[in-house]
Amino acid sequence: MEELPGVLGTSSSFALRLGQTVFSSASLFFMCLDVDFYGYSAFCFLVMVMGLVISWSTTLLVVDAYSIFIKSVPKQRRFIFTITFGDMVLSYLLLAAACSTASVTDLLRSADKSYCPENLCSRYQISAAMAILAWFLSSASCLINFWLFPSL
Amino acid sequence: MEELPGVLGTSSSFALRLGQTVFSSASLFFMCLDVDFYGYSAFCFLVMVMGLVISWSTTLLVVDAYSIFIKSVPKQRRFIFTITFGDMVLSYLLLAAACSTASVTDLLRSADKSYCPENLCSRYQISAAMAILAWFLSSASCLINFWLFPSL
């Protein structure tokens, strides 16, 4: 099996996981700076998804670091399948959460100022942007592992 | 090349494309029954995406019907790549549009009744549900063609 960049256990996969962890943590941070998010179901959904993504990415970050350390790439079919499936579900959830947050923020901005003061709304927007970046990296991880899967 | 169900040119692919066309047309129909959607950017986004998806799915429906008719499955690498890439982009756009519509509708329902009378809001909800079904089928098409791609 040739080593495709981004496949589980490689240093590029480590970089992708690190990016996912950083962007999803940033998204959660900007959303939770204020407790106002409880009022909107889209924002609660984003917080829930980010909780899942951070734990998933951190776990795989540790797996990647360990694989790089012992210089061995995991090749078990079932293991790669689980990782690919998890990445796929989480990337869809990330995109859904990011788009929901972005559209709700857009609606709140166009509505009355009392619903969404300027600094609060830009915080929600940054959160949605970070979620989109996390989705992009998560989707890349998923597609690379999915590409590898038929050859296993 | 073994014939995987759902691969371009097979009858199951025809069924998937037909489903996508039907669900996306239904979603567009329920959204455009009233001209109120112009007021919300999420709804305009849905209408734009549905326009793209309907034309894409109808074209591939014709390609599938022709392939079934002449009993030959297209196997050109570049052609399958274009189809897979288009399906992937459209499935992401569909999910984004569906989630944006669903979250905006949810927000409008929880807000004042004047923003969203009961029958209008349920129409938006049906539109979002149809978009999710279209996404599901589009995503299946994309994954099946992507699975096949490394073996070409």
Shape of chain A: elongated
Strand coverage percent of chain A: under 5%
Give the total of beta strands of chain A: 0
**Radius of gyration of chain A, rounded?**
17 Å
How many H/I helical runs of chain A? 4
Structural class of chain A: mainly alpha
Distance between the termini of chain A: 8 Å
Low-confidence stretches of chain A: none
Q: How is the main sheet of chain A built? A: none
Order of helices and strands of chain A: HHHH
- Helix percentage of chain A: over 70%
The domain count of chain A comes to 1
Mean pLDDT metric of chain A: 88
- Give the oligomeric state of the chains in this entry, treating copies of one chain as homo and distinct chains as hetero: homodimer
Describe this protein's structure.
The structure is a homodimer of 152-residue chains. In chain A, 77% of the residues lie in helices and 0% in strands. With 152 residues, chain A is mainly alpha-helical. Chain A is elongated. Chain A has one domain (11-151). Chains A and B meet through helix 2, helix 3 and helix 4 of A and helix 2, helix 3 and helix 4 of B.
Chart the SSEs and their pairings.
2 copies of one chain form a homodimer.
Chain A lengths: L10 H22 L8 H30 L6 H34 L7 H31 L4
